[in-house]
């Protein structure tokens, strides 16, 4: 199209400036909206992650028993937004089916410093469906949880204190 042709078509001449201004405005707005610059840090729940058990103690009927890990065991706990799982095995042992392994998991709730595990999956059905509430504290990459494990009909009634380090 040449200018003489456009001059004979006034409706086209009126449309072009409006279209140009509209496209310019859209381009300007898109350039101003840079999502990479506007990302704000997301507050995360400090309990979420993978935790390596480094020490633990149980107090049962007034008698305490301390365990240091990894003496002959290794345990991790994996926690996401809604669920937890723990995995525990003996290290430096036979590489066959005689190697003892323990695992469980389920849902959890966290209200303030009160962390409650709802054990939905476990090898011993007497433990399944039970809530276990712990008071938790954080110090840097360390998680300490203290609470009561009580399972009716099993003789289990003890205080448990566990110290975990966050796996990076």
Protein traits:
alpha+beta, 50% strand, single chain, globular, 3 helices, 168 residues, 2 domains, Lipocalin
Explain this structure.
- With 168 residues, the protein is of the alpha+beta class.
- It folds into 2 domains: 3-38; 49-166, Lipocalin (Beta Barrel).
- The protein is built from 3 helices and 9 strands.
- It has helices at residues 3-7, 10-32, 35-38, and strands at 49-60, 63-68, 73-79, 83-90, 101-111, 114-122, 130-139, 142-151, 156-166.
- The longest helix has 23 residues, at 10-32.
- The chain is globular, with a radius of gyration of 30 Å.
- The termini are far apart.
- The model has no long low-confidence stretch (mean pLDDT 82).
Count of individual domains: 2
What's the CATH H-level homologous superfamily of the largest domain? Uncharacterised protein PF14869 family, DUF4488
Q: How large is the count of helical segments?
A: 3
Question: How many beta-strand elements?
Answer: 9
Mind telling me the C-alpha Rg? 30 Å
Strand content: over 45%
Major sheet: size, sense and barrel closure? 8 strands, antiparallel, barrel
Low-pLDDT segments, ≥5 res: none
Q: How would you classify the helix and strand content by structural class?
A: alpha+beta
Helix content: 10-25%
CATH topology of the largest domain: Lipocalin
Q: Main sheet: which strands, in order across?
A: 1-3-4-5-6-7-8-9
Give the CATH architecture of the largest domain: Beta Barrel
Distance between the termini: 65 Å
Q: Give, in order, the helices and strands.
A: HHHEEEEEEEEE
User: Quaternary arrangement of the chains shown?
Assistant: single chain
Question: How does the overall form come out from the CA principal axes?
Answer: globular
Question: What is the averaged pLDDT score?
Answer: 82
Specify the CATH class of the largest domain.
Answer: Mainly Beta
């Amino acid at each position: 199209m040449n200018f003489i042709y456009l001059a004979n078509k006034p409706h086209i001449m009126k449309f072009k400036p409006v279209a140009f201004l509209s496209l310019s405005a859209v381009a300007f707005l898109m350039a101003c909206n840079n999502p990479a610059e506007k990302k704000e840090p997301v507050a995360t729940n400090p309990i979420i992650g993978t935790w390596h058990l480094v020490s633990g103690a149980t107090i049962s009927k007034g008698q305490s028993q301390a365990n240091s890990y990894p003496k002959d065991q290794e345990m991790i706990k994996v926690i996401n937004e809604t669920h937890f799982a723990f995995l525990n095995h003996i290290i430096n042992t036979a590489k066959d089916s005689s190697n003892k392994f323990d695992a469980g998991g389920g849902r959890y709730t966290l209200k303030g410093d009160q962390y409650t595990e709802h054990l939905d999956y476990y090898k011993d059905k007497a433990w399944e469906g039970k809530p276990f509430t712990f008071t938790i504290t954080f110090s840097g990459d360390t998680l300490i949880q203290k609470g009561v494990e009580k399972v009716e009909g099993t003789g289990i009634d003890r205080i448990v204190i566990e110290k975990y380090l966050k796996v990076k």
